[in-house]
Amino acid sequence: MSDYKKTIGIEIHCELNSNTKIFSNSINGYGKTANSNVNVVDLGYPGVLPTLNMEVIRLALKAALILNCEINKEMHFDRKNYFYPDNPKNYQITQLETPIGVNGWVEIEVNGQKKKIRIHDIHIEEDTCKSIHYKHHSFLDFNRAGVPLVEIVTEADITSSEEAMAYVEKLRELFLYADVSDCKIEEGSMRCDVNISISKTDEWGTRAEIKNIGSISNVGRAIEREAIRQEELIENGGSVVFATYRYDEKEDKTIMMRVKEAGNDYRYFPEPDIPFVVIDDNFIEDVRKSIPMLASERREKYVLAGISELNANKIIQNRSLSNYLNRFLDKDIDLVVASNLLLGDIAGYLNKTGALIDNTKLNDEKFITVVTKLSKGDINSKVFKDILDDLMESDSSVDEIISSKGIKIISDPNELKNIISTILSNNENSVNDYKSGNERAIKFLMGQIMKETKGSANPELVNKLLLEELNK
């Protein structure tokens, strides 16, 4: 884009992992038959009263703590008044004046540069029911009505689509590993609204809001398309209107939905049916201690153990594999080999079978044994592939599985020297190629040796002995 600067703020709604809804005892669950997880509170019947679910306070507090927020120890809920079909009470219970957390921050990294994105506040509110549009009709599913949310509002610190996507990914990672939310954007449990303006000066332009963006990549695309729309409008003599838009992925453009309401249009006032909530230092400390090892700490431990940053990030993207690997952080095994196995053949097996690693027969003892054997060269990758299904599905030990398959690993140097000598004698051209400086010839010779031994030779020992023979 030209010399226009982007100013971006993001609002993210995350559904919390509570068993029941925020103000009723209806189940908080996704994918159930429409209007089955519903009661009179969710439907907004006249005269019914909300009952606050304290587990929601605990989860929201955990979210505020990992976002480095200052905590409001005394808070109340507010009514946000508006009429819409998905909101039968004609108001939404939220927090305006006393959000649970304020003045936080999240650190992101883009192109090797770290940056803190300030959090204005994080507040608790109830979700509305889900609108489903079909042809000329609209339907309402109240399963989502009353599902507990936290809304995280940034300051306007973001200046590019790359930073915006990095921020959303960071928040998803934090909440997922803290057990705050499942953050399934495709299911709507994490929804993003982006506010963006452009300007050639340090003064902010008129912002537009893009609602309910459905993926992290689309956050970036929506920002770029809206920035282009605003620039073209300004350059052609028009002016940006303070309005709400949606991003159309198929058309790759933002489309106006409505002119944006001002805050006073909602006529906020304190919710009269819910008492003030007071939390003390002991409660805060209890919640703080319940926060599990987050992704940033895991990443640091993995890299210190020698795992590449690429593989560390891949492991972290699969929480069940990360939790499994963490069981061995204080064990005397090669974590690089362990991570390679988890990301390679074991991940392939799990994808093929649809199994979860904790539901397989790969217990700690078997995993330590197989990693150690691979590290020492007692088995090679071909043998591991041959025994993988049995490792995952049987109660037998690693040695029992290897024995039952009649697998023999050749680690005797004298035996391997004889095989190497025969291969070199039968491939004089390749030997000469290597001695002439063609390094690729050694790969061919290694392949011939492994073929001759049917993959049962220790590859590290073979490579060492082969080089010794070639360099004589």
Account of the 3D structure:
- It is a single chain.
- This protein is an alpha+beta fold and 472 residues long.
- Helices cover 40% and strands 21% of the residues.
- The protein has 16 helices and 16 strands.
- It has helices spanning 40-43, 54-66, 161-177, 216-235, 281-289, 295-304, 309-317, 319-326, 335-353, 364-376, 381-393, 398-404, 413-426, 428-435, 441-452, 459-470; strands at residues 5-15, 70-71, 74-75, 78-81, 91-94, 101-110, 113-126, 130-134, 137-141, 148-154, 190-199, 208-213, 243-248, 253-259, 269-270, 277-278.
- The strands form four sheets. A nine-stranded mixed β-sheet has the order 2-6-7-10-1-11-12-13-14. A three-stranded antiparallel β-sheet has the order 5-4-15, with no helix packed on it.
- A hairpin with a 4-residue loop joins β13 and β14 (253-259).
- It is elongated.
- The mean pLDDT is 91.
